[in-house]
Fold this protein.
Amino acid sequence: MKSINKHNGKVVPLDMVNIDTDQIIPKQFLKRIERTGFGKYLFYDWRFKSDGSINKDFILNQEKYKNCSILVTGDNFGSGSSREHAPWALNDYGIEIIIAPSFADIFYNNCFQNGILPIKLDKKIVKEIINKSKNENGYKLNIDLDSQLIWDDSEEISIKFDIEKFRKYCLLNGLDDIGLTLKKENEIQQFESTRSLTGGVVKKIT
């Protein structure tokens, strides 16, 4: 998993609440077995009309917000089913940071497992960022995970955000659950070797 520390990126405002995982990645695309290639299906029912043509009114299809990497949105983002395809689609599209007042718990956890940094900020700050990104062309934010700071280029917005120490460590080092397990690879191999030699009887490793 790719690590995250310092990031400077363009903001796209999705000024809506209760966006669920079926809106992020509709269920008809969940049959794919790969973890990549989901970006083109992100917010599919909003990005495309029923005849498959591009919906030019949807914000991600507007020229102003092309190549954005920071999504700023409303309360309870990622609610609904627990599909991990939702962060896969966001990540594959190029979204690395999501800022919202609140997230659905399972989606929030899945973000950390897939190299996306979800940041919870006060509603007033979120609304200010949304308004700035609507009114300014190419509005960007800087995020420093190590110091837990967010600021814009004009420094009109400068704020510290909270994150659990363990989650921060994992993102800074690019570690998901598999990566964390592999850090103990030598101990695991030693355990398995000892277990084999003792006929399945587990002995304490010192």
